[in-house]
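Repro case for the chain-ordering regression, as requested:
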Amino acid sequence: MPDLSLPEKLIRWRRDFHRHPELGFCEYRTAARVAATLEALGWGVTAGREVMDPAVRMELPPAAEIAAARAEALRDDADPAWVARFEDGLTGVVGTLDSGRPGPVLAFRVDLDALPVVESDDGAAHAPAREGFASIHSGRMHACGHDGHTAIGLGLATVLPALAPKLRGKIKLIFQPAEEGCRGAGSMVAAGVLDDVDHYVATHLGISAQQTGLVACGVDGFLATTKLDGHFTGVAAHAGVAPHEGRNALLAAATATVQLHAIARHGAGASRVNVGLLSGGAARNIVADRATLKLEVRGATSAINAWMTVEAGRILRASAELHGVQVRVENMGSAGSAICDTALKAAVRRAAARVPGIAQVADTLPMGGSEDATLMMEAVQARGGEATYVLVGTPLPAGHHHPRFDIDEAALSLAVDLHATLAQELLGGTVDPGRLPPQKQ
Amino acid sequence: MPDLSLPEKLIRWRRDFHRHPELGFCEYRTAARVAATLEALGWGVTAGREVMDPAVRMELPPAAEIAAARAEALRDDADPAWVARFEDGLTGVVGTLDSGRPGPVLAFRVDLDALPVVESDDGAAHAPAREGFASIHSGRMHACGHDGHTAIGLGLATVLPALAPKLRGKIKLIFQPAEEGCRGAGSMVAAGVLDDVDHYVATHLGISAQQTGLVACGVDGFLATTKLDGHFTGVAAHAGVAPHEGRNALLAAATATVQLHAIARHGAGASRVNVGLLSGGAARNIVADRATLKLEVRGATSAINAWMTVEAGRILRASAELHGVQVRVENMGSAGSAICDTALKAAVRRAAARVPGIAQVADTLPMGGSEDATLMMEAVQARGGEATYVLVGTPLPAGHHHPRFDIDEAALSLAVDLHATLAQELLGGTVDPGRLPPQKQ
Amino acid sequence: MPDLSLPEKLIRWRRDFHRHPELGFCEYRTAARVAATLEALGWGVTAGREVMDPAVRMELPPAAEIAAARAEALRDDADPAWVARFEDGLTGVVGTLDSGRPGPVLAFRVDLDALPVVESDDGAAHAPAREGFASIHSGRMHACGHDGHTAIGLGLATVLPALAPKLRGKIKLIFQPAEEGCRGAGSMVAAGVLDDVDHYVATHLGISAQQTGLVACGVDGFLATTKLDGHFTGVAAHAGVAPHEGRNALLAAATATVQLHAIARHGAGASRVNVGLLSGGAARNIVADRATLKLEVRGATSAINAWMTVEAGRILRASAELHGVQVRVENMGSAGSAICDTALKAAVRRAAARVPGIAQVADTLPMGGSEDATLMMEAVQARGGEATYVLVGTPLPAGHHHPRFDIDEAALSLAVDLHATLAQELLGGTVDPGRLPPQKQ
Amino acid sequence: MPDLSLPEKLIRWRRDFHRHPELGFCEYRTAARVAATLEALGWGVTAGREVMDPAVRMELPPAAEIAAARAEALRDDADPAWVARFEDGLTGVVGTLDSGRPGPVLAFRVDLDALPVVESDDGAAHAPAREGFASIHSGRMHACGHDGHTAIGLGLATVLPALAPKLRGKIKLIFQPAEEGCRGAGSMVAAGVLDDVDHYVATHLGISAQQTGLVACGVDGFLATTKLDGHFTGVAAHAGVAPHEGRNALLAAATATVQLHAIARHGAGASRVNVGLLSGGAARNIVADRATLKLEVRGATSAINAWMTVEAGRILRASAELHGVQVRVENMGSAGSAICDTALKAAVRRAAARVPGIAQVADTLPMGGSEDATLMMEAVQARGGEATYVLVGTPLPAGHHHPRFDIDEAALSLAVDLHATLAQELLGGTVDPGRLPPQKQ
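-- result from build under test --
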């Protein structure tokens, strides 16, 4: 797209990704486009097993589903060489740009995955339907803005090389799979992607920043979260002839569902619990020998979330015991409750002040949900680095995860400008020492 | 199969049906074979809408599933003319043989449908696998002996015409779809199939008659039953951000599940309740706005079952109310608790005494389950006729509904001999008036 | 009462006991009257620790309550010497009459205790109120006929000595405390009271024999039963400030209550469960750290009851675990499911035939409840003896345990005549050997 | 006590009240002492029906309990004339001091009632036990400091008359009964006690101010609350013979208990629910026909509390419906979630600065519980007045409501000095107009 302006490119990328949504650990086409674009722009590219630990991925889809996603990506013109690099669902990509001068490492993180939502086809109310870039895969949709995030990442990949001669240190662009469900970040942390990062900036469109030109330098109110599955196994029996010979796994799961929601409120701050999915049983007239729960707990702090997780585990096991059945509890995902660093938020504020079109800057806006970017933030902060989570404002015709979710595409180039300026703030040759971030050794 | 003996024919039929199991209201191939055979043997044949009231079928499969079954039957060589007669799942068939002489109407009833069971492929332990007539449709199996029942029906169709010149009255062979789940009999009753029947005999292989040569003239311990579905509808919400905005349909369903199992025991006799299936929710982090229960209640008498049904309905509605959600309760099937008539059981005993190979005759053996033949029995008894439910013994390598269920095929010709002899007992010219059944007006 | 006829004496006794009802293990006055009367009539008398094992009494009242009952008895003219024999609630009495000739041991058993029921004061509808012998202890009432049973026992004590010269063997009159709740019989069994008994006859007025002159030689349908208490202990906490610091014992008890009622029906016969009492908590705004359940399970057979007991125990423990609290489960009573012996029922029938006024004799009538006489029956049958449970008919103005329960006092002398005649049947010198019961070694 | 210093008097009063704790609406002796003292010091005194609306008192004790408290107070030397004024539990008292000059009305509020707590008798650890002023009424204790609050009220009654000549407006001393359970304030509001108040100051010792010399000018984090009782009524039945004839009130109550604790978390802020007491049933073998729950809900805002109250009501009713029983839901108390006014907090800060011994002043400390002073605060704020809730610091050997709760009595005179100085700040002749509170018309 050599003859397009950057805003035009951003829209072109975003709409392409919007049409081709891919679920977590299945982002073959998206990741292949990202990798090929980074490479063409001169970035060092690592991908697949280089940037993800296969063992710590949470709630990996069945192999058949991943294989189908891979085949679909190839049909949709994904580059077979890159697809091969992503092996079995290792769809993470990292681009690296080295200034050649000593200095800190700055990482920008965006996410790649879509949601299992049926997109609205109401052209009157939903621009993607009206303008022809709605999802071509029924039942999947970019309803959380990650299509825009990925486009912003490619926008940065486009503009930063020209700035590099004036910068110190290195820039990493992290393209993370499977943010939904908080399933992918841990794998990149485990693979060491954050091990050299001094400044970490994750970015999201919308959330509580709901007008174009508004930016939040950080967020608070991350809820730490743990995702659990409970698999109950009992003994089937004929419900008419010998109900007493059964061990009712469905009754255990129903008991657990009610009781999990009755975990005591925590006096020290917000807690959450939700059994979002339950399925069990084989036939109406058979005592059910199998049932599965999918649930999550959350807490305003990691400590509250840990307490909720302990409660939930005990309730699952005791509900099984109550009905004389077995239960296997599996950890399917988690995120922490990170705090955005003051100095880094100040740098974002300075950068924002330099970007035309950014009309309003908030120090902190509420997050009010969970994000596995927190795992990366914690990793960076644990080694003495700084991290923040930036919101780039956009009006929202409908909330996140809604079939009519959409963004103002004008926010995309504002986001690129903001982050590129931030890179200059943090890595620029002329920054005064007082503003220098902590140096890695 | 002109050159085969009757026992050979029975086995041939039974194995053909065993290889091609079809679920309730989808028995296109089976019913077409039955109809064509009856016609070829000179029986009057009515079918489809003539013998079933489409409106009262319970738990009809989705139209797409019925259409797929129909297409499959055509691929498997079902006669297209007959298939067309069965329209959208009206797969019942009735054969009629009129002696031309005044007299009572005797009906024999067999059932056609198979079960959603994966048949064992263990040739060492399971004869159908070993001898090559196991189900060719994975996930469906004749695990309740209906393949044998249908073969017995065709055996009777074969032998009775030769006896007709010596009989009075009429014989009806009723081939009922969808006995599993007690879903099909009501439709045939509503269509008037039983309106002229004086003697009604339903037949089952096995149950509590578990040796070849043993016959029970009747059964007791039918449990009356009602099958219900509960569809709960609430309001989805983000479980982290706004759990209070949700109305949790899954929690309502889980509550109902536990509470249904806590319905008080009935002091007047056995009762049962089972929630066999529950599924609900959309995603782990969304308050579930949808959940469905499949349940059944039973009672030793129709009164107890009716009481259980009232309790279950109230509990489903109150569980919805408890969580502020909606529920729709659907009646998916039912059966009564009929009593076998003494005079008719005596006739079966006399017939059994005349059949070589029947070594042992029980007056009554326990049923201990539910059967919608009871609806036909009640219809016949309500008009002054008599009804019984005959068990024809067979050893069972594994219980009914088990993946290794099988029968001793020698029982098939014993069954045909017994029922043909019973026809002579009941409709023979020489029976003394004292043994005459009540005459219809 | 030397100048009264036996029927007059029976009524006098019964009304005296009716006015002074005493709860289980508190029958000081009643037992003292019984013991003194037996002694005066020449019976050998054992009592207290001689006939009861203190350790196996179930649900013993608090010591203060027993002491108060003892004081009350002394105020109500109970013989202090006998009261002293009953120590701390050991209120059982056994009278023995030895014929001096070898022969079997025949035991008659009656029960002593009243119920915590407020007696009706409606003279128009309730004879005891009208005729001035209603309970003088508000909140206690002989609403199950044990006043009559005890009178029958004293009637037998009166008439049998005159018959003794014509009998063989021995007669025992067992006056059992605490039948209500099935709490007292086990203690007498453990003390060896039944160890030499060959024929055991327990007796009850009414139940399913509801007309004067009707006798049942035996009963069926005893429900075996186990009585359990669950004591839950958690941790209190301020429900507003720190609900998460609590461990909610009340929630555990409520969970157990619902789940106990959801124990699966048993396919082999009737089962029952009831949580009859629950109390817990200290204040509205405190997480409850204490709760207690009183429950019972029953089964048509001892095996079903044992299964129910296992289920209940597991549910109590798992409900505690579910809420992270402790539970102590205490066995508070039990009864079996005995079967009345055919030969002994036949002897009752022969005796009944000889009693004028007994107009109708049933072989067996339904019991439909629980009785700890079954523990004695089982003990006798276990050593090769025979046992039965005789019903002596009386019309019932209101059912057992009702505030207007009453009996036809004419039934009392019929009962005495029946049992005295039975003694002659069983121990008479002229019985033929074929009718002799099994002899102890 | 003419010859004692004020600090000595305060300690004398406090210890006298501590020895004679009285529960809510039973504070006859305490209120009589207060009224008599006010009168002796020249205050106008209104009491009983003049200052309380009898109809809106929540959770009034049974009449017999109130009568017993009244008799006890008379035995303990309460003035019979004042006791008579308090009629049936109308134990509120208000003292009024009019400066005779126009100006605002300032109200100080203290509370009178004790708690149903057994006081520690451990002299080593508990000063009241060691020094001989522990409660003489076992099972009742001033474990929340109200004895000190009442003493502070009497201290103000002592010192303010001397200041009156220099003040404008009026001062009211409100002595409120039944603060525990949030049961008494509403009655005084309904009687119009707050209708002329411009400045309202409620006072508490301790809470989050836990050192002597520390004062908080206001609090935040009041949890709004509603107290509910649920009375379930079903139908009793014999649990062995006819369980199906029962309607189980206890099962309904247990269901409600579990389900109430499962009310969804509220996304907008803290919520609470606690079923603190449950009792039900009559006997182990009877289906329970009666059960009662005592519960409370709370919310960080009145809106959240209102939402919780609606949820709780629906759950109580639906739990009854689920088990086919009746329920009556009674509102037993409530409190709001008031906000302390900034200008009034500033006045407290100015006053505190003038009191020797007050070493540290916090603008706002957390409340973290519920208080029905909020109802008075809301009433004053609704008419344009200002309100705050002052904490006077004291170390706490054990938390509020604990058997070893105690205070540093030195805090009492600090509190009197602070409030008297505050009266000068607010009603002094020389205050500048800018600091004048809103004037009533």
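Ordering looks correct now. Chain A touches chain B through 47 residues (CB under 8 Å).
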